[in-house]
Amino acid sequence: xxxxxxxxxxxxxxxxxxxxxxxxxxxxxxxxxxxxxxxxxxxxxxxxxxxxxxxxxxxxxxxxxxxxxxxxxxxxxxxxxxxxxxxxxxxxxxxxxxxxxxxxxxxxxxxxxxxxxxxxxxxxxxxxxxxxxxxxxxxxxxxxxxxxxxxxxxxxxxxxxxxxxxxxxxxxxxxxxxxxxxxxxxxxxxxxxxxxxxxxxxxxxxxxxxxxxxxxxxxxxxxxxxxxxxxxxxxxxxxxxxxxxxxxxxxxxxxxxxxxxxxxxxxxxxxxxxxxxxx
Amino acid sequence: xxxxxxxxxxxxxxxxxxxxxxxxxxxxxxxxxxxxxxxxxxxxxxxxxxxxxxxxxxxxxxxxxxxxxxxxxxxxxxxxxxxxxxxxxxxxxxxxxxxxxxxxxxxxxxxxxxxxxxxxxxxxxxxxxxxxxxxxxxxxxxxxxxxxxxxxxxxxxxxxxxxxxxxxxxxxxxxxxxxxxxxxxxxxxxxxxxxxxxxxxxxxxxxxxxxxxxxxxxxxxxxxxxxxxxxx
Lengths: 279, 232
Prior knowledge:
The structure holds two protein chains of two kinds. Helix content of chain A is 82%, strand content 0%. By secondary structure, chain A is an all-alpha fold. Chain A has one domain (2-273): ABC transporter involved in vitamin B12 uptake, BtuC.
């Protein structure tokens, strides 16, 4: 049992870490809407996996990566209406997901196969998936280190980076490709409807903690890992759905960070407005 | 590779995505090497559109635009852009932007770097050279968001110059500078044209700070060039 729990927590830490990191990049590069659509394409893919009787992670990976590449190309070719195309992909993906679940042979919504697709499951985490997450983490870190200065230039100002000759289109496509990979590989833990809470809540919390880009990236990765692992533990203890519990835990962390920031700013303002007395 | 001109626009029409009205109509313009070109005109004349078309950030829907002989629609345009420096109109960063001035200038080298490559000693010397030139050497370790508009503008001009570009595109580079700053930037840019035989394109609605230094003055109105067409 402990071995199984250790495996689940390791997967949660890796998934949370990856989601927190990619969430930071998609937010800073202003492609959040696109990643939201990619998350739903992953859900559609996982649901199709139920009909075809193949591992939902791999079918989710195919649709997520395909939609990421499609949206990436649209993003670099079209200026007006990008968001609308992204929302069209989101709508179609959601519809496909629901149809696929309806058409699948799974009769009970609480079965493991459906739980994996909709709200995540502890039972769905295997050594194979853990290795997959480790591999993605390794390649992602390698990419970030290899192109550190180019990515930094885009984070500072995308337009300037493009005008100076940085291959912005390629890096945007790669980022969306990683978003597709990370979302689909994290699907087993959080489920398709809630995977984006791990993408957005940690980065939103990190913005309350620090103003430095590198600190935000670090904080977002750590907070993603903390949210996912603690959410998983709570769900295990209280026998709650994993994805929903992770979403609630990460939202509570965000709320606490936001409240702490408001209090800290109020205290700072009070200190600054206090008159200075001589003697 | 040798070029006689940095930019060549032939019967160029540009419209923003989603808009029916062209922002620039039938523009013909050549920017020779070793010249300082000033583009002036009122707000909405199409000056920024012109500078972004020269760099290939906006593509013409009719006519042709070339940057160092490369069609701006070609995928090879990013190699031509590596010979350019660019200062955008909206350069200001919010107070929480924590990149230091040194880091911002260093980012100018990004396109030339291969994977895992870091800053060389020569590039470090160039950062010092350009910061002394623009009198921002004391600001190098300050976060850019904490600086005034004028200081930020000088830092971004330094980033464009540190690349030693063959063509420099400056969009309203005097907008946040005081009188002394305008004089300094104007003379630095003029010296750069003379010493490096580079082309400089400056977009400015206010001609006073730079008019005496410019070789060519082009006036735009309603998306058209209304004077200075000798350089078409």
